[in-house]
């Protein structure tokens, strides 16, 4: 069932006159249809949260702002901490995330932050709830809800994402705790196919997760990451990404998602990280936006790109290239490594370096804010910002030689 062919229902309403896209349709309709004076009702299930979902999504997708992703699992956060010689324990994870969220002025550039469950229920060392720290900055708290990747039986060494069991009760609890959006990350591997089984499993899982989130008041971030691993060219990445997103939106329609109340978190369309042919930011922007315009309805408020192993500067340059002309949606960022790399190196786990680390975060946040507005320049960027975390390369190598999909998040 296509997006445009959804049956009419009284289950929920969307006032099309407030949508720029739908508004154009209304203007072109014959006066006798009287659509301009009516509320058109689609078969959408969001359990009475429709207005709040739309408001939350629009707030996150606001000009010059994006998402800070700090939802690394304990294992992945441990990789971040070990890169600066710190032990992976709750005290150190708390100190690091407190440093990030308490950065003065962060809300000017960051509209939302994705938290791990530990952080959502955690307080700072001074006793203030992390959620309250976010809200005071004007940053909407979100929550990672998937349970990681495991091997997909019957596939070509591909994976599927766990976490649907118990998700309804968990999302209700997360909403009560203060979260207002959620993230579910699944992945697709280009070198391993991808098989039809893997694509359908990824897309269906995302659609079910998204429907459950909207039923409990959380804006779902839909994230089928096309992994960078491989020697393929940019054309092959674009082909796979278009197939994946087409399938995702088919299943979103089947599950009656309110598109105005979701956000997307795609990977940029780039060559595989082992390709001998590199692409310029302009080429990446062209391939990425062409693919998205073919698959993503303009009703979706925001596309928040993941950095996916790119260096800080690469991710910012590519985002900037995508905002050189108007897009049907807010095109922004939801970065983890591409915002944190310089921060970790400045902090080094030392209390006396907190201010320097927070300044490093503001530098990266402001750079990506400018990129969202199409006004970024790489002139004057530090050499360190052009490098990625060592753990990214190490983890990619581990994946290449392992038949078991690690249950960690790369973003």
UniProtKB/TrEMBL annotation:
Catalytic activity: beta-D-fructose 1,6-bisphosphate = D-glyceraldehyde 3-phosphate + dihydroxyacetone phosphate
Keywords per UniProt: Chloroplast, Glycolysis, Lyase, Plastid, Schiff base
Pathway involvement of the protein, from the record: Carbohydrate degradation; glycolysis; D-glyceraldehyde 3-phosphate and glycerone phosphate from D-glucose: step 4/4
Pfam families: Glycolytic
GO terms for MF: fructose-bisphosphate aldolase activity
GO BP term, pick one: glycolytic process
Keyword Cell wall biogenesis/degradation: no
Cell location: Plastid, Chloroplast
Enzyme class: lyase
Any GO CC annotation of this UniProt entry: chloroplast
Database matches in PANTHER family: FRUCTOSE-BISPHOSPHATE ALDOLASE
Protein name (database record): Fructose-bisphosphate aldolase
Species classification: Eukaryota, Viridiplantae, Streptophyta, Embryophyta, Marchantiophyta
